């Protein structure tokens, strides 16, 4: 398709097909020229949006007189002119106190929407769990055991190492303060109470939120980005049953077990510091441990473990299923998953602390 133009003083005459295919040849013919006073299109065979845009930007202006154009060509050029005249209005950005309040309000609305979405997703997962319990759906036992190994068993070394180190730090700090009162031996009670009630399960939950929760989000998110979730639905399968329930059940089973090992590692770290630096022999440490370690303190920590596991798994899986489009979205939702899971774990830990305080535990 050929496209041509000629000048007669300030009048521009168009001929041929001014379409996308002819843009390259038209641009090759361009030379410095004043803007046309009038444009004649009687000999124009066809014109598309690319040709009209080239005409308006390189040969004439939006208000240049146009003569002899067909109604369709004239309508197309008018649409291009109208679109070029449309400007996106930019709202002024508020600064200072007003801007801070505006951003705080937006954050509150987003937090409310996230909470409602997580609550709805929790209801959906619980519905599927009830259906599995009633035999209306099948529990994917192989997938559950696989995730129990990956999310729980493989995390034992790092969780125990961190708990051991934190136990040693707590013993050092406790002894430093208590020595001023001549009560360094009470470091045993400090380490025991803190790990039985709080540190054991809290450290485990935070580590699994960063380790296993992020893995859940990334795995499901990539399946979502590659449209594998849509393929699962097209096969008549349920992504909640196939992907979410095995991961959730695996974390609920394994987090209390890993937390128990973390408690033992933390107490061992405190005992080692007491033996090497504080003059508390292993026999004395064990004797005071038996006196201080009431069973209710252990139950306080273990009761929280399944709740923390449920929060981590649901948050991670929901963020994974919310991914859309690209790898950048996977990274964004993975970050949101870890942040939200840790925030919820600490929030519920504080609520449990208030609850147990009120009931005398």
Descriptive report:
With 361 residues, this protein is an alpha/beta fold. The chain folds into two domains: 3-85, Transcription Regulator spoIIAA (2-Layer Sandwich); 120-358, no CATH class. Helix content is 71%, strand content 7%. It is built from twelve helices and five strands. It has helices spanning 23-28, 49-59, 71-85, 96-133, 141-151, 156-178, 187-225, 228-234, 239-276, 282-292, 295-321, 327-358; strands at residues 3-8, 11-18, 38-40, 44-47, 65-67. Strands 1, 2, 3, 4 and 5 form a five-stranded mixed β-sheet that branches. The chain is elongated and about 110 Å long. The model has no long low-confidence stretch (mean pLDDT 85).
* Beginning-to-end CA distance, first to last residue: 87 Å
List segments where confidence is low: pLDDT < 50 over at least 5 consecutive residues. Answer: none
Domain count, please report it: 2
Strand proportion: 5-15%
Mean pLDDT comes to 85
The whole-angstrom Rg is 34 Å
**Sheet bearing the most strands, described?**
5 strands, mixed
Please tell me what the overall shape is: elongated
Helix content range of the residues, please? over 70%
> What's the total helix number?
12
H-E string? EEHEEHEHHHHHHHHHH
SSE topology sketch:
Elements: E1 3-8, E2 11-18, H1 23-28, E3 38-40, E4 44-47, H2 49-59, E5 65-67, H3 71-85, H4 96-133, H5 141-151, H6 156-178, H7 187-225, H8 228-234, H9 239-276, H10 282-292, H11 295-321, H12 327-358
Parallel strand pairs: 2-3, 2-4, 3-5
Antiparallel strand pairs: 1-2
């Amino acid at each position: 398709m050929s496209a041509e133009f000629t000048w007669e003083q300030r009048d521009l005459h168009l001929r041929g097909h001014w379409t996308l295919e002819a843009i390259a040849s038209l641009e090759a013919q361009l030379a410095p020229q004043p803007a046309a006073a009038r444009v004649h299109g009687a000999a124009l065979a066809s014109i598309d949006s690319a040709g009209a845009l080239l005409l308006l930007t390189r040969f004439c202006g939006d208000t240049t007189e146009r003569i002899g154009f067909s109604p369709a060509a004239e309508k197309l050029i008018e649409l291009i002119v109208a679109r070029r005249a449309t400007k996106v209005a930019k709202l002024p950005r508020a600064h200072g106190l007003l801007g801070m309040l505006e951003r705080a309000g937006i954050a509150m609305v987003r937090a409310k929407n996230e909470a409602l979405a997580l609550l709805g997703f929790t209801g959906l997962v619980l519905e599927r769990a009830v259906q599995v319990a009633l035999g209306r759906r099948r529990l994917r036992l192989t997938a559950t055991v696989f995730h129990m190994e990956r999310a729980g068993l493989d995390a034992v070394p790092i969780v125990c190492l961190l708990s051991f180190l934190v136990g040693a730090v707590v013993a050092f700090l406790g002894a430093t303060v208590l020595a001023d009162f001549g009560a360094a031996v009470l470091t045993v009670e400090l380490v025991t109470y803190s790990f039985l009630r709080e540190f054991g399960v809290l450290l485990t939950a935070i580590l699994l939120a960063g380790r296993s929760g992020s893995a859940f989000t990334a795995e499901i998110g990539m399946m979502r980005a590659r449209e594998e979730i849509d393929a699962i639905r097209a096969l008549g399968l349920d992504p909640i049953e196939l992907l979410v329930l095995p991961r959730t059940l695996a974390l609920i089973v394994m987090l209390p077990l890993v937390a128990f090992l973390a408690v033992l590692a933390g107490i061992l770290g405190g005992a080692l510091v007491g033996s090497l630096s504080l003059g508390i022999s292993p026999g004395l440490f064990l004797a005071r441990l038996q006196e201080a370690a009431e069973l209710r303190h252990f139950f306080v920590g273990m009761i929280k473990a399944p709740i923390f596991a449920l929060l981590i798994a649901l948050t991670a899986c929901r963020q994974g299923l919310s991914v859309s489009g690209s790898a950048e979205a996977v990274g964004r939702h993975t970050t949101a998953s870890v942040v939200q899971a840790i925030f919820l774990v600490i929030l519920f830990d504080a609520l449990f602390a208030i609850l147990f305080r009120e009931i005398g535990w």
